[in-house]
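PROTEIN DESIGN WORKSHEET
SECTION A - STRUCTURE
LENGTH: 173
TOKENS:
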């Protein structure tokens, strides 16, 4: 429970206070130790996942979170068939050399054939560099198409209003 509460954003002290209120008396040092042990276990599991199997399709995506007010990149790599976590790293950006190295390392270790990602150009470069086929994620494509359709619809509405006003001005003159 302490790990879950920490992952949900509570500080070590806040987790200890919450659990104390629930009748489980542990200190924030124990919470810290639990989180560290879970991290080590997770890393070991990731390594085992990479070493034990052939994964034809891997997916990779990056995002940013704020940690102590600082923007930090997180790169996630999963095995597509079972959504097994193959890699989770803090990064500088999605374009950084460390992301390229991480994807290359995982792709080679699981003998991947396809990389699924968003349409960021660096992913295509990684795929080309490792000899992977590259596919853009359907969710990203759908989101991009929806955003473009919304933008075009807004432009069309503005243009239609402009044409209506122009027609009224012409009729009135």
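SECTION B - SEQUENCE
RESIDUE ASSIGNMENT:
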């Amino acid at each position: 429970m302490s790990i879950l509460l920490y992952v949900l954003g509570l500080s070590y002290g806040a987790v200890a206070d919450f659990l104390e209120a629930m009748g489980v008396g542990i200190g924030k040092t124990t919470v810290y130790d639990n989180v560290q042990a879970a991290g080590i276990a997770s890393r070991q599991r990731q390594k085992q996942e990479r070493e034990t199997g052939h994964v034809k399709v891997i997916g990779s995506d990056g995002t940013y979170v704020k940690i102590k007010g600082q923007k930090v990149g997180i790169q996630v790599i999963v095995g597509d068939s079972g959504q097994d976590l193959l890699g989770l790293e803090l990064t500088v950006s999605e374009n950084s050399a460390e992301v390229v190295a991480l994807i290359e390392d995982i792709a080679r270790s699981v003998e991947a054939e396809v990389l699924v990602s968003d349409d960021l150009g660096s992913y295509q470069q990684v795929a080309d560099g490792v000899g992977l086929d590259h596919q853009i994620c359907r969710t990203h494509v759908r989101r991009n198409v929806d955003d473009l359709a919304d933008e075009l619809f807004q432009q069309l509405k503005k243009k239609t209003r402009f044409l209506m006003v122009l027609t009224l001005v012409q009729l009135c003159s």
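SECTION C - NOTES
The mean pLDDT is 79.
The chain has two domains: 1-52, 56-159.
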